[in-house]
UniProtKB/TrEMBL annotation, chain A:
Name of protein: PH domain-containing protein
Segments crossing the lipid bilayer: 20-44, 50-70
Keyword Transcription part of the UniProt annotation: no
A Pfam family of this chain: bPH_2
Stored PANTHER family: TRANSMEMBRANE PROTEIN-RELATED, UPF0699 TRANSMEMBRANE PROTEIN YDBS
Keyword set includes Glycoprotein: no
Span of domain YdbS-like PH: 76-153
Species assigned in the record: Paractinoplanes ovalisporus
Keyword annotations: Membrane, Transmembrane, Transmembrane helix
Automatic annotation (TrEMBL), chain B:
TM helices/strands, residue ranges: 12-33, 39-64, 169-191, 211-237, 355-374, 380-398
Residues annotated as domain YdbS-like PH: 69-145, 401-476
UniProt keyword annotation of Transmembrane helix present: yes
Residue ranges the record marks as coiled coil: none
Name listed for the protein in its UniProt record: PH domain-containing protein
Signal peptide range in chain numbering: none
Record lineage: Bacteria, Bacillati, Actinomycetota, Actinomycetes, Micromonosporales
Keyword tRNA processing applies: no
Annotated keywords: Membrane, Transmembrane, Transmembrane helix
InterPro entries listed in its UniProt record: UCP026631 (IPR014529), YdbS-like_PH (IPR005182)
Amino acid sequence: MTDGDIRLRPPRHPVDRRSVGWWSTNLILLFATPVVVLVLLGALIRPARFWLVAPAVVIAVAGLVLVLALPRWWFRVHRWEVTETAVYTRTGFFWQEWRVAPLSRIQTVDTRRGPVEQRFGLSTVVVTTASAKGAVTMPGLDHALAEEVAEQLTVATQAVPGDAT
Amino acid sequence: MSPEWQRFDRRAVPVSAIFMTGVAVMAGVPSAIGLSDISVAVALGWVLPGAVLVVVAGTVAEWLRLRYSRYRVGPERVELHTGMLIRNRRSLQRDRIRTVDVTANPLLRVFGLVSVRIGTGEHAEKGTVRLNPVTRATGDELRRTLLDRAAEPVADGTLAVFDPGWIRYAPLSFVAPLLGASAVGGALNVADWVGLSGGLVEWTIDRLGGLGLIGGIAVLAGVALVLGVIGALGLWVEMWWSYRLDREPGGTLRVRRGLLTTRSISVEEQRVRGVDLVEALGTRLAGAARVDVVATGLATGAEQNKAQHSTLLPAAPTELAQRVAAGILREPVSPTEAVQLTPHPVAARGRRLRWALAGVLAGEFPLVLLGVLLTEVLLHIAWISALVAVPVAVALAVDAYRSLGHGIHGDYLVARSGSVRRSTVALQRRGIIGWTVRQSVFQRRAGLATVRATTAAGSGAYSIRDVAAGRGIEVADAAVPGLLTPFLEEPPQQLDL
């Protein structure tokens, strides 16, 4: 990008600090499952031990690196903002994504809490528009804050007539 | 329409009986042939009662379905009640109805019946009511009453009519090679049913033995291609025969087409958000293009034939396609033709070349690996195919780069991309309901970004691929004034992005 080019500024608010823990737990669960299965099988099936434990070690090492690195990266990248006119988010690391949806086009506002997310006291606010590909998600918000944002968005949405297409 | 409760046409029962008989014959004959190895009596003893059971069960099920289904077209809603054990009640608000499609397969046509699909375009399945079957007259009346509600009278007329000459473009789309491959696969499958699978393959190898491996492959590919072309021609005739595109009073675009199964597809004009000019590589070289409409509330999601629902003109000479596109949008000249497209940075060409070569490499790798491990023949195949594939891939990549472009023309944002399937989308700027800017690690290094305009219409989002990041954001900001403005900044002061 050359100097002087216009660009998107980062949204104002970072996600909750606890998100790092939440994402790490998710990744640990993701990688631990195959590792545990492989190690168990390795313990039981003697002749194939090497071929079961070796991939388990590879997965564990790769997983460990990702568990340590990814959530911290994500935390730096994931940001969100709700203004008078629009919802604005930035997500992703390898594929960074900025999403903007005007409040006037919002159709539904949902708050989601996965089981792990719940334990960390976090919520995800999902805003959908009439576009099949236009949903904007704001993960890693504190429970109370998420409620507040959802409430604010719902009020703003109801103020606009029409079916938002 | 009378606001009373009505039932589907009773003739659905004989239709179903005939259909199930067809199914029973199709399934029964191969099984009977298979079982007749044991003895003819055994074969008939198993197959006949089974066939009778299938036909009776199917017919009774259809009778029950009719018995427990009823619909009502009231002044405000269209209601459909179905189901015997699980009652299913669906009601659509009339002012939400966006499409009324009327189809009739050959069997229904013999009985003078049609199947009507009424859609709101929301919640895929829940937003649709299918009345199957009703008489042709009822179907036409439904279509007229449900869609005709525009206050001001709109000029109507014909936008395009069938030209048999267009058939020359039919074999040039992707359909031909696909059909060819599936025909060969199908032949092997049928041979397998009747226990000739090995025989057929041996027979083929016998015939082609004299040609060597390369010759054999070439002959097979040729046969598949010829079959594919025949299939594509047949499919095209069945789909597009007696096609016409009309603008009807009340502001509806209506496509009528079909040889055996006739279809009538109506799109409300206020739902149109743009057009998509689609050129498959073959048809593009022949100077032809297809016109798809970008509209909200067309069949979405899991519903099949989505592509065909939105196609308003099959591959036809580009000049005509542009004229039809202009007609659909009510513009003097189609924005896809009038727009001055801005090319994208050279870095986008580098990306396409790398993808193309990576694709070739991924294809060659197993050949080389197996060649080293097993036999030298594969190595020869590898270098010969690479000799062909590399120039083709490079040519496609360069062409894909040259296709890239974007621009704003009047009320439309126009974006073009693709080589094998080049698509030029003109999207109404007021139809854009959000933006997504994506940047992969590689794009970031090259200063590129993919800017997607999200919309309620068509596929939900249309992309300006690999545009210079700053330029893409400027275009997005210009296309929908005000939406992105509060989130923009001049970079030199801050380094974060």
